[in-house]
Write a structure and sequence with these properties.
This protein has 200 residues and is α/β, with parallel strands linked by helices. It is 27% helix and 18% strand. A six-stranded mixed β-sheet has the order 3-2-4-1-5-6, sandwiched between helices. A hairpin with a 5-residue loop joins strand 5 and strand 6.
Length: 200
């Protein structure tokens, strides 16, 4: 049975202007070295500079693998909870989101799932794709893979270049192989992208 493998990662650490820091380039380089052992078919990235730069750094280790922008990977809020399903600790985060913004985020989330979570046909070869994106789209893909309620994307954060792997097979539920794995990073490069209080 053919399998679609998604290797999903958040971009490297970035500064306040959204540009990769020295640590971010190191993180992306190390992730590229890790992915070089795999038969990668394509690298997709969001159009934001921190994701595009991370993808280019990773692609240095993947000669002849095509790299391209995918608008569905943009940083976005995939689902805004309504009042009766809103976790109290998140209520203030959504202040100011209007219906149009919530609907646009939902459409982007639906497009993300439609484009990247379809299993190959049984007679097709396996595919191996790298997605360089942001914390919220990763959380949405993980929530989707687990068939969890839409609010469960909240709180599923990812470290910079933390690796998540999801497998898709025709007729079966997706398999979440790993989430936010940072074993390619040295200690000082791990857990960036989290509040300091949340780091182990």
């Amino acid at each position: 049975m053919a399998i679609r493998y998604l290797y999903v990662a958040r971009h490297g650490a970035a500064d306040a202007f959204g540009e990769l820091t020295d640590a971010g380039y190191q993180q992306a380089d190390l992730l590229g070295r890790r992915l070089a052992r795999l038969p990668i078919d394509a690298v997709w990235h969001s159009m934001l500079p921190r994701a595009a730069a991370s993808a280019r750094e990773i692609a240095k280790h993947l000669p002849d693998v095509p790299i391209a922008e995918a608008p569905e990977l943009i940083d976005h809020v995939p689902y805004v909870p309504n009042a009766d399903e809103m976790p109290p600790s998140w209520a203030g985060f959504f202040d100011g989101y209007d219906e149009a913004e919530a609907a646009a985020g939902k459409r982007t989330a639906e497009a993300l799932v439609a484009r990247f979570t379809t299993a190959p046909e049984r007679n097709e070869p396996d595919s191996h794709e790298v997605l360089i994106t942001h914390a919220y789209p990763i959380a949405w893909l993980v929530r989707h893979a687990l068939a969890a309620p839409p609010t469960r994307w909240l709180g599923l954060d990812s470290a910079n270049t933390g690796l998540t792997v999801i497998e898709y097979r025709a007729g079966l539920s997706p398999t979440l192989v790993m989430f936010n794995d940072q074993s390619h990073l040295s200690g000082d490069l791990r857990w960036t992208g989290f509040r300091s209080a949340a780091r182990p």
